[in-house]
Specification:
The protein is α/β, with parallel strands linked by helices and about 210 residues long. Helices cover about 40% and strands about 20% of the residues. The chain folds into two domains: about 110 residues, Response regulator (Rossmann fold, 3-Layer(aba) Sandwich), CATH 3.40.50; about 80 residues, Arc Repressor Mutant, subunit A. A hairpin with a 4-residue loop joins strand 7 and strand 8. The radius of gyration is 19 Å and the shape is elongated. It starts with a strand and ends with a strand.
């Protein structure tokens, strides 16, 4: 599962992008200041960096440059309002793989991630179900199973984070009218439809356990 570090000082945009990317099955950590990136990358590794440029402390250019000088080979995408050719050239010279100008549709970002960095062998299995998180195709005994939008999004979140607890608030974002009761009802229907166990971790959230 791809792990992404997002550097973005606009907290509303950062939260929105994190939510959107997590719905696509990615794990996302956020840094709001340039120097926070160093603390996060010191303690863990990432598969992709998504960096804004104009952020507090150290800008995205300086941060990526420092990481590259330290031998970090993690690919990076810049998302920025800077549109002048010199800024774009600098980003690529430092070592960025891609450059997206703000404002942009989050779906464009996902398309670029999938086309450039997504591993091709992404099929996930639970019992007799096979799930492709990229195409969102769910099959049982080679027969396609169709789910409604809400249950599809719930299943996607839980399936792409197997053996990990997905908090209830994240799952409720999938609902048209979010509530704890509505979440329980939808998950009960999903369990009955697919014949899988979705564990309720009291006070924390839910998980699909694949042992």
């Amino acid at each position: 599962m791809m792990k992404i570090l997002l550097l973005e000082d606009d907290q509303i945009l950062a939260a929105s992008l994190k939510e959107f990317l997590e719905l696509e099955g990615y794990i996302v950590d956020i840094a709001h200041r340039g120097t926070e990136v160093y603390d996060l990358t010191f303690s863990q590794t990432y598969d992709l960096y998504i960096f804004d440029v104009n952020v507090p402390d150290e800008d995205g250019f300086d941060v990526l440059s420092a990481l590259k000088e330290a031998g970090d080979t993690t690919p990076a995408i810049y998302i920025t309002a800077l549109t002048d050719i010199n800024s774009i050239a600098r980003g690529f010279k430092i070592g960025a793989e891609d450059y997206i100008k703000k404002p942009f549709d989050p779906e464009e970002l996902v398309i670029r991630i999938k086309s450039k960095y997504q591993q091709t062998d992404t099929l996930l299995y639970i019992q007799d179900l096979c799930y492709d998180p990229v195409t969102r195709l769910l099959q049982k005994a080679d027969k396609t199973i169709g789910l409604g939008e809400v249950q599809q999004n719930l299943f996607h979140l839980l399936m792409t984070q197997q053996n990990k607890i997905v908090d209830s608030f994240t799952l409720m974002d999938c609902l048209e009218y979010p509530s704890a009761n509505a979440l329980r009802v939808n998950l009960a229907k999903l369990k009955a439809r697919l014949g899988i166990d979705i564990k309720n971790i009291r006070g924390q959230g839910y998980m699909i356990e694949n042992i």
